[in-house]
UniProtKB/TrEMBL annotation:
Domain named NlpC/P60: residues: 63-184
Native source species: Pleionea mediterranea
Protein's recorded name: Lipoprotein Spr/probable lipoprotein NlpC
UniProt xrefs under PANTHER family: ENDOPEPTIDASE NLPC-RELATED, MUREIN DD-ENDOPEPTIDASE MEPS/MUREIN LD-CARBOXYPEPTIDASE
Region (Disordered): 32-58
GO BP terms in the entry: proteolysis
Upper taxonomic lineage: Bacteria, Pseudomonadati, Pseudomonadota, Gammaproteobacteria, Oceanospirillales
PROSITE patterns, alphabetized: NLPC_P60, PROKAR_LIPOPROTEIN
InterPro entries reported for this sequence: Murein_DD/LD_carboxypeptidase, NLP_P60_dom, Papain-like_cys_pep_sf
Amino acid sequence: MLMKHSLIKLLTFRIVVLLLTTVTIGCSQKHSRLTNNSTHNSSSQNPSSHSASSQQNINPNRRQAIKQLDAFFQRWIGVPYAIGGLSRAGVDCSGWAKLAYANAFGKRLPRTTARQVTTGNWIARSNLQWGDLVFFKTGVKVRHVGIYIGNDQFMHASTSVGVTVSKLSNPYWHSRYWMARRHNF
């Protein structure tokens, strides 16, 4: 009887681990409650208020796309995170990037971070511009994506606060930064 009980506990534990692993293969950042990576005041939630210097050398088409991205972001602030989500009821990081790119830039992105990271052109971190996709390795098989908005910040869908703005210099994001990709608009 004791052996049967131990076997059931072991199988239950393995199922839970398997489920948790499956759920976190997409976008994940459950760390944000502990690392305070997100910005939560109203001025930081207005991307255009931080972007004047980063927009100086941007062509007019890209500048218009920036305005559209700002407006799109304002409608999505705080929309909750939902793995696999693509609506205002819930969205994950790659889904939000896909929707934002389509709305602001008229650009179709693949649905997953694994596919998004293969699109566009590689950009050095030192050359980031508004609208570049920024990617992070948040686990062995877990990737995260956001949209760079200048002044060391990016928009993304956070598991703890939903669609938000965070800083690349936050220790968590800084240590997990992987690469950036640029699309021509």
